[in-house]
Amino acid sequence: DESFNVDIRTKSLEVLFEFGCDQAYLRNLFSKYETNGKDKRLLFKINEYLIQLNNKEAILWRMKQLIEMAISNKEESVNSQLSRYELHYNEIINPLAQVTSDFFISDYLQLVEKGIKLINEDKVEFNWLQHILNTSFNYFDNLKIYKSYNIIERVESEIKNQTEFKGKAILEEQINNLKISYLRHTGKSENYNDAINFYNQLLTKSYLPIYSPQDLLNLIQKVLNEDIDRWIKQEGALKLIDDLKNKETLIQKLIKTQLENALLRRGIRPYEININREEQLLDDKRTDFTLSYGLVGQLLLELKLTSNTDINSPSGRKKYKKKLKQYIDGTNSDYGVYIIFQVDVKNELNPILKAVREEYKDFEDLHIYGYDCIN
Predict the structure, then answer these.
(1) How does the average pLDDT of the chain come out, rounded?
(2) In this structure, are strands 289-293 and 298-305 parallel, antiparallel, or unpaired?
(3) Cα–Cα distance for residue pair 196/198, rounded to 1 Å
(4) Which of 95, 192, 249, 342 could form a disulfide with 349 if both were Cys (CB 3.0 to 4.6 A apart)?
(5) Half-sphere exposure of 329 (CA within 13 A, CB side)
(6) What span, in angstroms and rounded, lies between the C-alpha atoms of 202 and 219?
(7) How does 303-342 read in b/e, with b if 16+ C-beta sit within 10 Å?
(8) What is the DSSP letter of 162?
(9) What is the pLDDT of residues 292-337, one digit of tens each?
(10) In which element (H, E) is residue 73 found?
C-alpha cells in the first residue's frame, strides 16, 4: 500500500520475503516500481531479494546499475557528486558479491570485460574499475565451495589474454589471490565421516599410540602416501601454482596446513603436535620444517621444487646432500623427509627423483618423496 511510508513498506517486504513469497510476486512488484520511477530504495530492495533467489534478470539489472554509476561518477566533476556515488557503492555491489550459484560465471566475466573496456575508453575512473573487479572476484571466490579447479581455470583462461590497460596489475593480483584462496579452501575437510570420527575421538580420548621416532615417521609416511597424495593428485591442489611468485614459500605454507589437518584427523593429540617452519640453526641456516610430537622425537622435512638447482644438477645434489645432513644433526632430528614437487612442465619429476634417490642412497635416515603437481 503506497499510503504507507517507504520504511514501513520495506519492513513489510522483508517479512514477506522471510515467510517465502515467490519470485513471480517479487517480479511483478519490481516491474511496478520500475515503471512508476518512485521509491528507488524499495526498488533496489526488491531486486536484492530476487538476487537471493538467483534470478538472472535481477543480477543483470544490478550489474547495469553498477556500470551506469561508474560512468556517471566519471562524468560528474563536482566533488559532492563523487561523494554521493561513493556513498551508494556498497549498497549496489553487496548483493552481487554474495551470489553463490555457479550458473552466472559468464555474466560476471562479462562484467569484468565491461570494466576493462570502459577504462580503455576513459569512461570510468580507476577506483571504479577496482570496484567492478572486486564485485566479480568476490563472486568467483564464493564458488570455491564447489571445490572445483575447473571454475578458476575458466576464469583465468577467459581474461588472461586481455591487452594492456590501466590496472592490469590489479587484475593479475586478483587472479593470484583467487588461486591462493581456492588452494587453501580445498584443503579444509568438510567430510561428514571425518567429523564423526573426530567427535568419537573426543568422546573416547582414543588417540593414536605414538611411542617412538619410528612410530612418528611411520605416521608421516602414511599421511604423505595417502592424504597428501590424494590432495595433490585427485583434488589437483597445486596444479595452479606454476605462474605464482614465491612458489616454494607458498607450498610450504599449504603443506604445513595439510599435515596438521591430516594428523588431527588420524587421531593425534592436538596439544602435543608441533610443526615449525624455517627453524634457525646456530650457523643462521634455516630448515623448512621440523615436526615433533610431545617428547617422542623429531623429524626434519625439506621441500624442493624440481626447478631448484639443489636437486636438478649433479653438483647441486652433491652439495645439498652435505647441507641436509647438517640440518638433521643441527635440529637433533631422528629422521629426515625430503619432498620434491614438480609444478612446471620444464623440469620433469621422474628423472630428477631417480637421480636424487641415487645420490642419497647411502643416507639411511632420509626418506624421499616426489609429487607431480601438474599431470
Answers:
(1) 79
(2) antiparallel
(3) 5
(4) 342
(5) 8
(6) 20
(7) bbbbbbebbbeeeebeebbeebeebbebbebbbbbbbbbb
(8) P
(9) 887 778 999 999 999 999 999 999 999 999 889 988 888 889 999 9
(10) helix 56-75
